[in-house]
Amino acid sequence: MSGMQIIRSRGELQALADAERGAGRRIALVPTMGAIHTGHLALVEEARRRADRVWVSIFVNPTQFDDPADYDGYPRSFEGDLRACREAGVDVVYAPRPEELYPPGAQTWVEVSELSKPLCGAAREGHFRGVTTVVSKLLLAAKPHVAVFGEKDFQQLALIRRMARDLGFDVEIVGAPTVREADGLARSSRNLRLGPQARKQALALVRALDGAGQAVAAGERDTVKLLAGVRGEIAKASLAEIDYAELRDPESLEPSPATLAGPALLALAVRFSPDPDGRGAEVRLIDNRVLLGL
Ligand code: PAF
Q1: Ligand 1 proximity of 31 Cβ (cutoff 6 Å)
Q2: Most ligand 1 atoms within 8 A of CB, residue of 29, 55, 135 to mutate
Q3: Which of 10, 29, 99, 225 is deepest in the core (most CB within 10 A)?
C-alpha cells in the first residue's frame, strides 16, 4: 500500500480489513480522539512493532463526555492530526462521522458494570459506558488483531481488557507505557490548558507517585500512611485539589488491603484551578503507578 488512506465509512474499512486479513497481514488499531501528541505516537510505534498495518481512528466520542462544555472545548485539529499520522507512517486513518457510529435512535450500550464504578467512574457519570461502547464499535469496524491503549488511562485499559474478554472479541488488547514530558508530567492534550503556574504545580502528581514508590521500596506497606504521603505532596500545590488518590488492585480495581501484600495501583486525579492572574483553564489531570509490581 502506498500513502495514507483516510476512510470515513465503516463498510469500506471492514472491506479493507477483510482484504488485509485475507492476505495474511496483521492489523493494529490505535483508537484516539484526535489532538494527536507524542503520547499517541508512542502508541503508534507500539502498534508498528506488533502488526504489518497500523490504523488510527480519530473520533471525538460524544457519549464519554459527562460535561457538554468539556466536549465542546475538546481540542480538535484534524489537519494537524492527519499530518502527524502521515509522518508517523500510519497506513489508515478511520474518521467516522458521529451519525455512523451513533445512528439516530441508537439505544445499544456496552457497559462493564463493576470496573466502571470507582475512581474516574465515580466522578464521571456514564463516562466509561461511552468509552466501552465506542471502542466496541471501533473494534467491529476495524477488525484489528491488536488494539493499543495508553497505560496513563489505567482504568480505561482495565475495562477494555475485561470487555474484550467478557464479550470474546478476537483481539489482543495491549497497554503501552505512559509517555512523559522531560520534567516527568504525563503527556496529555489537557496539559496545554494549564496556566504557567499550574503547569509547574502539576509536577505534584509525579512527585507524589515517586514518593510513594520510594516509601514502598523502603519497606512501607501501610496504605493509610502511603496515601497520607501522597496527599501531603499534592497539598503543597496551592492550585491543586484532589479528586481521588487511591490504592486499588490493578485488575479488579477493588480497594487494596490495609497492608499491601502484592501489586497495588496508586491512582490519582487532581483538579488544577486557573492561575491567580486568570491564565489557563480548570484542568483535571490523572496519573498512576503500580506499586510492588512484578
Ligand atoms: O483514550 C481515548 O482517547 C478515548 O477514551 C478512546 C479510547 C479513543 C475512546 O474514545
Answers
A1: yes
A2: 135
A3: 29
Distance CA 161, CA 29 (A): 15
Q: How far apart are CA 92 and CA 16, in angstroms?
A: 10
Q: What is the pLDDT of residues 21-73, one digit of tens each?
A: 999 999 999 999 999 999 999 999 999 999 999 999 999 999 999 888 889 98
Phi, psi of 262 (to 5 degrees): -160, -170
Reply yes or no on whether 40 is catalytic.
yes
Looking at residue 13, which CATH number applies to its domain?
A: 3.40.50.620
232: CA distance to ligand 1 center in Å? 31
In-domain check, residue 125: yes
User: Do residues 17 and 144 both lie within one domain?
Assistant: yes
Residue 184 domain-assigned (yes or no): no
CA dihedral 57, 252, 249, 180 (to 10 degrees): 0
